[in-house]
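User: Fold this; tokens only.

Assistant: Input:
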Amino acid sequence: MSGTLYVADHDVVLDGSLISMAERGEIRGRLFILKALVDYFSSEAWAGRGIGFAGLEELKKLQELRLDSLEIAIVDEERKIKELDANSVRWLVRDYAWKVGAILITSDRAQAAAAQAMGVRVMLSSRGSSGRLKIETFFDAKTMSVHLKEGAPPLAKVGSPGRWLFVRLREEPMGRGELEEMSREIVEEASRGGGYVEIDRLGSTIVQLGDYRIIIARPPFSNGWEITAVKPLVKLKLEDYGLPEKLLKRLMERAEGILIAGAPGMGKTTFAQALAEFYSRQGKIVKTVESPRDMKLPPVITQYSKTYADAGELHDILLLSRPDYTVFDELRSDEDFKLYMDLRLAGIGMVGVLHATTPIDGVQRFIRRVELGMIPSIIDTVIFINEGRVEKVYEVSMTVKLPSGLREAELTRPVVEVRDYLTGELEFEIYTFGEQTMVVPVKSARRAPGVEESVRRVLPEARAEVREGTLIVRIPRLASKVTARKIKRLKSIAEDHGLELRILPE
């Protein structure tokens, strides 16, 4: 068949627009597919990457079109490149179109500009949406996530953070072919510009597609094909959480080393998103570091991906661009914690999101990664999210004192205090004892009506206070003699109120 010559690059194959153009009759004549393109997709598929599977499937569909107006030929070009990647394939396709005088079909504007600079004619396809994806049919207005596994019926979490039910969507198990087709559809839609392929590696692909965060797992990483898709149900403002005025004031004026902790699915990212928008409305420059980028934020907030930059690049960009706050969603590896700490110590306000079962767990995850005395300089506020609400807020500070429960004055040492910010009650003390770092829960101080008056009846000159589960009696050095009988009476008073007794000179 004679006629117009065309050469397709990998972008127009991967996003599905080449088949659409052929079906609409927009290309007539001879269409060349470079063998290098097939080899590239094949190597990606052998490496277990979703792009490879999607590309091969598109080429297979292209060969099955059987159009009278279009002849499709695989051509083997001379190449000196041994290891193919996306950029080298673009170069080979562009060079071949130039050599044979063919029209280059692409959906990549940079590729089009480079080809036109060489005098190559270009047909630039549009990356239109393919319509509703099959994965979307499993969702309704109350579905939080969908869990699809080869050989098992599809399941969904329906409800709200912390209050959801597992629902079986159908009795028929998911088949491998069905999951492979859905995976191809998802990767193609991301290639069209509808989202990002955040991570693509051996056995797994992570895609952010509009509101959906999609995780694709396949052999050999998993024992079968699996797709998990998560979609946020609500978008809240900070005002919707009904936070106390005292906490709002701290967030506006003092908090610069913030941790947002909580169990998976409890609403940590939703709260972090609300906090980022709150700071932006206060006239602050806000940026985020995410993987994947699943926060829905206004254009004024720049979202960086950990996947496409190393820690050094992120560090340099954030220092040079000087944001007031950076939201790090989420802290997982030692490298993530180091970047968070370096940026905080450089003076940037940081908001870190991490998984934790209890509020204190968030602080404990920093202990082995940094010197104890540095913790209050890195973390000053811990916000624990449970079932979509703020359940606990901690304030972290440093002091020098005798730790609770110790008696000898020479054991005084630097202590990190973790207090309930809203009540001021001390809940944990962190300090070194020998070679160990101790995280010690402190008994809650209880009000003991009349205990101070009882002490004054025994020692009129003494000053008594109840603190952290201990009755502290301070006796002036010039006071009258303290007899063993008086000490015994003081012990009795403390025991009656469930307190320990500590006597100190004043």
